[in-house]
Amino acid sequence: MQRINAGVLDLVFGALLLFSISDAPDRLSLMIALYLLVRSILRAVYSIVLHIPHLALTLATCIISSILGLMIWMEGPSEESWFFSSSLSIEIAFRGLIMILLK
Predict the structure, then answer these.
(1) Which residue ranges make up each domain of the chain?
(2) Per-residue pLDDT for the chain (103 aa), expressed as one digit of tens each?
(3) Are 24 and 9 in contact (CB under 8 A)?
(4) Residue 19: CB partners within 8 Å, gap ≥ 6?
(5) N-to-C CA span, the chain
């Protein structure tokens, strides 16, 4: 169930990015911030409900992703694209680490 919900969220986010390309960086930053926040909250809830192993590490990565999402939302350190891409890269790297540890 967790993978289906995460897959649907990734699919919807990707479609929104693909079909709503505009010159407004504020819109892109809001979409990235909401993606990071929603994804980390869902991952935290599912890890607690499903009692997955490595719960502390999963929750730590959720907190880091939430902080990055809030920083983007509040126009944190930078509104440049390098911060957006590094935040998404950190999220993907943490997600990959958790998936490797769960196998």
Answers:
(1) 2-102
(2) 666 777 787 788 878 777 776 666 677 788 888 889 998 998 899 889 988 888 898 899 999 999 999 988 887 656 677 888 888 888 888 888 887 887 6
(3) no
(4) none
(5) 17
Cα separation, 36 vs 72, in Å, equals: 9
Q: Alpha-carbon distance 89 to 28, whole Å?
A: 16
Rounded CA-CA distance 43/88 in Å is 15
**pTM of the prediction?**
0.78
How many whole angstroms separate alpha carbon 44 and alpha carbon 39?
A: 9
- How would you class 57 by CB atoms within 10 Å of its CB: exposed for 0-12, middle for 13-18, buried for 19 or more? middle
What the block records as the tokens of 103 is: 């196998």
